[in-house]
């Protein structure tokens, strides 16, 4: 059984078990199905939220795939679920909970400080490497990732932070920047699409939702309203980063590789030696789930999504870098460009050379 096939039942089982734990605890306190809440039920619920769920998440989702850093988020989510599911009159009997949360998050903060210390001590080398790369081109995401891989090769947490650095760079500090390339040929992929309109519509919708829901939820629970406001602001910054990265990172073709970055949430450094062939795409408009597993769709979102222009087949599966340090392998790429004929002929020429 392949890893891709094995992950689905495990993920499905995790969703079922987690939902069952949350649902049974919610029903216990919020409905009269079980009658009066039995004595000691709160302890059982806290064990479910703070021990069972985090362990379940670790063994079925995080272990061997993601950084332990995510456990801090899982534990915090367990505390949040406890406060939302267990009524306050029951939690009042356990005044130690806030202190337990402080201790847990304090440990997580110490872990974060350790990561920060590691990054700071290697920062001079990292900055030197980044400046060296940035002097050649303006591809911030590729440059910062390469600098991190060179200076902090074993730090999964640092690779996760690349997403945060890139998001803030693109969304807040890149508005006056222009594309700068001193080597290779660039091909834009967004000028003939409505991708800008798509992102602006999404940002507009998030902003309106933020105002309305924040006002509504604040009268019910101020903490929830501010958490949602923070998430919505984060979502707006994420969309702005996607928009700006699309403008500033065209596809780049050099004599030995092809850089493909769509927005800032997915990117690939593709050696030309791994390209088997490039063809004009003649397949269906939509891809099945099985096809999507090994496929990189390098098109931008569009109001009317056109069929891909080209299909690139690879000799060996290649890594696609996703957000927060995640990766997946693909053996097939579909994409559109603003100058299809020039792109096709230049890539064919480079492959034959």
UniProtKB/TrEMBL annotation:
The chain crosses the membrane at residues 12-29, 41-61, 68-86, 98-120, 197-217, 223-241. Coiled coil: none annotated. It comes from the Bacteria. Keywords: Membrane, Transmembrane, Transmembrane helix. This is Beta-carotene 15,15'-monooxygenase.
